[in-house]
Amino acid sequence: MRHCAAGEQVPILVYEAGEALRFDEVSIRIGLRGVVNVMRELGMLTLKRKPPKKSVILRSISWLRAPSSGIARMLSKLGDMVSKGDVLAHVGDAGGKGEQPLDF
């Protein structure tokens, strides 16, 4: 690969790690992360990094109980910011009938 790239005057970056004839999962993960970072820096990939979530200090907690037993169909994910009145899930039977909202 290096010989062909040099013959075409194409710059190449080769990552070598681990042992011969073996796959080293840690080295593969590190190498993949590095290659993707280089490609992003060169503009070959878009920056898909999500901005970090804003930190929140909780002064109290409370429990929220479902209005009835059943299967919950979640509308919010773990870590989502919610406000009073937001519907977090719908609780109903296995057929999806008789659903009741679970609001905050």
Describe the structure.
The protein is an alpha+beta fold and 104 residues long. The protein folds into 2 domains: 2-41, no CATH class; 53-104, no CATH class. It is 22% helix and 13% strand. It has 2 helices and 3 strands; from the N terminus they run H-H-E-E-E. It has helices at 2-7, 25-41; strands at 71-74, 87-92, 100-103. The protein has a 3-stranded antiparallel beta sheet, with no helix packed on it. A hairpin with a 7-residue loop joins strand 2 (87-92) and strand 3 (100-103). The termini are far apart. The mean pLDDT is 85.
Keywords:
alpha+beta, 3-stranded antiparallel sheet, elongated, 104 residues, 2 domains, single chain
What is this entry, summarized?
The chain is of the alpha+beta class and 104 residues long. Helix content is 22%, strand content 13%. The chain has two helices and three strands; from the N terminus they run ααβββ.
Unreliable spans are none
Supply the number of helical segments: 2
Element pattern in H and E: HHEEE
Strand order of the largest sheet: 1-2-3
Shape: elongated
- The amount of beta strand, in percent, is 5-15%
Oligomer: single chain
